[in-house]
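Researcher: I'd like a candidate sequence for this fold, 250 residues long. If you have to choose between options at a position, lean toward the conservative one.
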């Protein structure tokens, strides 16, 4: 069989309706996985992603739930695993950004960022790991950010949430290694999606100067890293953060 095959595996991609998550869903499906595309508001966008996968000969379905509701996401992931009789890959990609210097950060914004980016990812991971423990194997991949390690003035709450995921990755890798479950993170740099579309000139040009490869990354380039970590070939990699950032932080 070709390398990096995900034939007959079931994968959930949270926030799979747009941006990086969409590219991940399409890439995992192209490797042969049955992909569950999660969204919170963008049902038609999620449906479009799933339809595109099916049109290309793959398998996909959509699942709307709010990752910001930890209990609900845990229940939804558990239900998906039960319905399919297995869950091999969880990509906890859904995330939001809210910018502001510490002196201006609102507690509500901080709560929401932590609820979606950290607690939601943990809720999904808990349900996924329960199912993976029974199968004695699986892959969990968290979506961190270059901001977690490099820092970025004006993104303190976002940085807190993304740095948390690196600690979570290291910890869960130790907790579930004996069950054959690997837990890793991917830390993208500046990637062209809706999230970064709002960054206008001159900030955009300034940012570009900080990227040794001299360009913004694509969602496909992040998806390729995720697809490798999801594969059987990555079985000896756990607790790691794979940086996909054009050299922005090395
Ligand atoms: P995006 O274009 O804004 O897309 C966000 C996705 O997450 C959408 O599919 C959205 O679904 C979903 N989502 C948001 N809140 C959710 C919730 N409460 N429950 C379920 N789904 C939710 O973002 P992106 O740029 O692709 O980013 C994806 C991930 O990569 C995020 O974790 C982000 O922090 C991280 N990241 C991005 C960059 C970058 O440069 N773009 C860099 C580093 C890290 P709906 O369509 O339903 O709204």
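Model: Candidate sequence:
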């Amino acid at each position: 069989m070709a390398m990096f095959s995900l034939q007959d595996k079931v994968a959930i991609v949270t926030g799979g309706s747009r941006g990086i998550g969409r590219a991940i869903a399409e890439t995992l499906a192209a490797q042969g996985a049955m992909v569950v595309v999660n969204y919170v508001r963008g049902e038609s966008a999620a449906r479009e992603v799933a339809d595109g996968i099916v049109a290309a000969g793959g398998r996909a379905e959509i699942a709307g739930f709010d990752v910001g509701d930890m209990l609900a996401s845990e229940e939804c992931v558990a239900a998906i695993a039960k319905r399919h009789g297995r869950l091999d890959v969880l990509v906890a990609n859904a995330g939001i950004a809210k910018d502001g210097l510490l002196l201006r950060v609102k507690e509500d914004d901080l709560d929401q960022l932590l609820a979606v980016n950290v607690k939601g990812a943990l809720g999904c991971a808990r349900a996924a790991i329960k199912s993976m423990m029974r199968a004695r194997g699986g892959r969990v991949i968290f979506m961190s950010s270059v901001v977690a390690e490099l820092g970025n003035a004006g993104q303190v709450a976002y940085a807190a949430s993304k740095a948390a995921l690196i600690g979570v990755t290291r910890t869960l890798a130790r907790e579930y290694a004996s069950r054959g479950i690997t837990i890793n993170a991917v830390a993208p740099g500046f990637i062209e999606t809706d999230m970064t579309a709002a960054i206008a000139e001159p900030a955009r040009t300034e940012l570009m100067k900080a990227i040794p490869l001299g360009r913004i990354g694509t969602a496909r380039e992040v998806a390729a890293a995720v697809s490798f970590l999801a594969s059987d070939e990555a079985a000896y990699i756990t607790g790691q953060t794979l940086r996909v950032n054009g050299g922005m932080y090395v």
